[in-house]
TrEMBL record:
Residues 1-150 form the N-acetyltransferase domain. This is GNAT family N-acetyltransferase. It holds the Pfam family Acetyltransf_1. SUPFAM superfamilies: Acyl-CoA N-acyltransferases (Nat). CDD domains: NAT_SF. InterPro entries: Acyl_CoA_acyltransferase (IPR016181), GNAT_dom (IPR000182).
Length: 150
C-alpha cells in the first residue's frame, strides 16, 4: 500500500468516491458538476485543504480530505478529516488507519495544528469503532446545519 497526497490526475477517482460515499451513507446523489468543481477547488488550492489517496498495486482504493478550522480557544488549527471512502472490497484491511496515520505525520511539521476532528453517521458503528481504536474520542457536541438560500 502506498499513501500520497492527491494530484489533479486523481480528480475522477475522488469524484467517484465522493458520489459512492454520499449514496452509501446518506442515500444522496450529488450534483456531478458541483462536486467536480468542489474537488478541483481543493486540489487547486492548498488553503482549502488536501486529499490523501491510498493505492494498492497502482489502483486508488481509498481517500480522505483534510480541511482546516481555526480554534480561538486553542490558538491553533484543527484538521478535519472528511470525505472518507474506502472501496468496499478493500475495507477492514487497515487502509483508513494508514491514511489517518499519514494525516498525523503530515501535521508534525505544522506547529499550529492542535488536533483532528471528523464527523460520522450516528448509525455507522463500524466506523465509530475504527476511530475509537485510533485514539479518537466522541465529543459532547451535536452538529447543526443550515443551507444558505441563494
Amino acid at each position: 500500500m502506498h499513501i500520497r497526497k492527491a494530484v489533479s490526475a486523481d480528480l475522477n477517482a475522488l469524484v467517484q468516491f465522493n458520489q459512492a460515499m454520499a449514496l452509501e451513507t446518506e442515500n444522496k446523489q450529488l450534483d456531478n458538476a458541483c462536486l467536480t468543481a468542489g474537488v478541483r477547488a481543493v486540489l487547486d488550492s492548498q488553503d482549502k485543504g488536501f486529499y490523501l489517496v491510498a493505492e494498492v498495486a497502482g489502483e486508488i482504493v481509498g481517500s480522505l480530505m483534510v480541511t482546516f478550522e481555526w480554534s480561538d480557544w486553542r490558538n491553533g488549527t484543527f484538521w478535519w478529516v472528511q470525505s472518507v471512502y474506502i472501496v468496499p472490497e478493500h475495507r477492514r484491511k487497515g487502509i483508513y488507519s494508514a491514511l489517518y496515520r499519514e494525516v498525523q505525520t503530515l501535521s508534525e511539521d505544522q506547529p499550529n495544528v492542535c488536533g483532528y476532528r471528523l464527523y460520522v453517521e450516528k448509525d455507522n458503528l463500524t466506523a465509530q469503532r475504527t476511530y475509537q481504536a485510533l485514539g479518537m474520542e466522541e465529543t459532547h457536541y451535536l452538529m447543526f446545519e443550515a443551507s444558505k438560500s441563494n
